[in-house]
Design brief:
The protein is an alpha/beta fold and about 350 residues long. The chain contains 9 helices and 14 strands. The strands form 4 sheets. A 7-stranded mixed sheet has the order 2-10-9-8-5-3-4. Strands 11-12-14 form a 3-stranded antiparallel sheet. A two-stranded parallel sheet has the order 1-13. The radius of gyration is 21 Å and the shape is globular. The model has no long low-confidence stretch (mean pLDDT about 95). The structure holds pyridoxal-5'-phosphate.
Length: about 350
């Protein structure tokens, strides 16, 4: 049995320790005589799993008591609608568009009220984060929305926007648990877990309690009200039990690794190996402004489409998979999430060096 180095943007690499534990428990979870895939979500065994997962996440992120943690389905994409449906009381929201995901969220919100694009980096193919220190925030904006880490383009906010007192909502899908985050600065922090946390099929939304009310847009489906899920502790209907279980294991793994401070250090070290090489290479170049570089998603190009394709092909054959850039941007992208070991990045860089030598 051999494993590749998987640089997929999502679904993505999971910690091997976690996969092994799951394998051991697949026939008989903790003496229950069943797999977690088979058990009732109303059982005591599962109740312990979901409660422990939430407690560990709260612990890892230091989530304040006045925030609910919700395990929801529909992916990050359903939140694009759920957020305006629950938060647009004045029917105005400000969006900072720094990539495809922020743009989709902005377009979705426009169905429910006045969505205002207050800044964008689309003029330069989303290769930077705009200056957000003094934006034209609407007086009656219900919230300001950002996508914290731009998975496709490889940029990240190093500083939060000045929202002039308005609530901040952030999609953290591709940087979730990659470093400490001060939850108290946000109204909602949410992320699809299939990027940096667990398997596909779930989004975790951390929502400030005062925003969880029955006062939602008319016609909002029951399943799309935060209150429905908050009142039922994420068990209003059958949740993604398997995903909650695996995420719970990843939370324990993160705690064992030293928590989010330690992950930040490790992620900075890992990203530096790749960025330092890109900055010194004659052939490979990073595609975003240095000050806005993501620790998680690293896009790069050779400047020659055929050479890019050759690189991706040879890298795949050598066991470095899913390095092809997003279909909308081309080139390459290495996603180096929490579970990517440092030696995975070191070996990738060694492979890139050799490729450069051979293809001069
Ligand atoms: C992948 C991604 C999404 C979409 O996630 P789904 O779970 O597929 O809906 C949204 N936002 C960001 C930042 C992403 O990386």
């Amino acid at each position: 049995m051999s494993r590749v180095y998987n640089f997929s943007a999502g679904p993505a690499v999971l910690p091997e320790e976690v996969l092994k534990e799951i394998q051991e428990e697949i026939f008989d979870y903790n003496g229950s005589g069943q797999s977690v895939m088979e058990m009732s979500h109303r059982s005591k065994v599962f109740d312990d799993i979901i409660k422990e997962a939430e407690a560990d996440l709260r612990d890892l992120m230091h989530i304040p008591d006045n925030y609910k943690v919700l395990f929801l389905q529909g992916g990050a994409s359903l939140q694009f609608a759920m957020i305006p449906m629950n938060l647009m009381k004045n029917k105005v929201a400000d969006y900072i568009v720094t990539g495809q995901w922020a743009k989709k969220a902005y377009q979705e919100a426009a169905k429910y009220g006045k969505a205002v694009k207050i800044a964008s980096s689309e003029d330069k193919t989303f290769s930077y984060i705009p200056d957000c220190s003094d934006l034209p925030i609407d007086d009656d904006a219900d919230y300001v929305y950002i996508c914290m880490n731009n998975t496709i383009y490889g940029t990240v906010y190093k500083e939060l926007p000045n929202t002039k007192g308005k609530d901040l909502v952030a999609d953290v899908s591709s940087c979730f648990l990659s470093e400490p985050l001060d939850v108290s600065k946000f109204a909602i922090v949410y992320g699809g877990v299939q990027k940096n946390v667990g398997p596909a099929g779930m989004v975790i939304a951390i929502v400030r309690e005062d925003l969880i009310t029955d006062d939602v847009l008319e016609g909002t489906p029951t399943m799309m009200k935060y209150k429905t899920h908050a009142d039922a502790d994420s068990l209003y209907n059958t949740p993604n039990c398997w995903c909650i279980y695996v995420c719970g294991k990843v939370f324990k793994w993160l705690k064992k690794m030293g928590g989010l401070e330690a992950m930040k250090e490790r992620n900075e070290k890992k990203a530096a190996i790749l960025y330092d090489f890109l900055d010194s290479s004659e052939m490979f170049k990073g595609t975003v402004e240095k000050k806005d570089r993501s620790l998680m998603n690293v896009p790069f190009v050779t400047g020659d489409k055929d050479l890019d394709a050759k690189f991706v092909k040879e890298a795949t054959e050598a066991g470095f998979v899913n390095l092809k850039g997003h279909r909308t941007v081309g080139g390459m992208r290495a996603s180096i999430y929490n579970a990517m070991p440092i030696e995975g990045v070191e070996k990738l860089v060694a492979f890139m060096k050799k490729f450069e030598e051979d293809n001069k």
